[in-house]
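To: structure subgroup
Subject: Chain for Friday's discussion

All,

I'm putting the inputs and outputs inline so they're searchable in the archive.
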Amino acid sequence: MEEQLRTIGVELLPLRVQKVEWDGKQFHLLTASQTIHCDYLILASGTRPRLLPDRQADKAAQQRIFYQVVDLHQPRQAKIAIIGAGDAAFDYALNLAADNHVEILNRTEVRRCLPLLWERAMRVPTIRYTPNTELLWAEPERNKGLRLTLSCLGEVETRWVDYLLVAIGRDPNLSFLDPTFAQQLAALEVAGRCYRIGDVKNGIFRQTAIAVGDGLKAAMQIYHLVVEVS
């Protein structure tokens, strides 16, 4: 995809946008080294995971708490607890279960995953599902793993695991927007100057095909606006 972009003359800048501002005519994207100006802006910044509140985990435990399965770097023969009951939690479990023992902890009885993911997970002997179980506290255990204190139907239990994977939801990654700009966003979208595409706006409908469609639609809308202006 990068080669294709360069072929058609799209410039790629490896810069992290720290702030976005709008002066009424142009957008200003502030980075650590420079400010970029543009007339139209597409926000495709995806989502970020919801983090455990501080009251549920010791700071020293953070090195063994993960929010995306890719960050675990393919562990083997490990005991892994997953908090959550949606598609991500069950998908993570299926990815890890071939080489590890996985327990999915759901704080209620309600599962929010696709029925197919549930059926597949329950056919895997190395996946255990425990409903009505809430994490009270996670702390390091002898520098080798984590000790989890859990509430199970009012009873306090303890689990020892190597890693904790948290899948309790994701939020739009828009923290870099200036507060004033965030208030102007809706009006700028109506005016056709700014576009949110993909996961950053689609909630639970995080699918590649949907994101690609959003991108194509935004590109076509901007093209027609530019043609009309010129």
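Points worth raising on Friday:
The longest strand covers residues 133-141.
The chain has a mean pLDDT of 95.

D.
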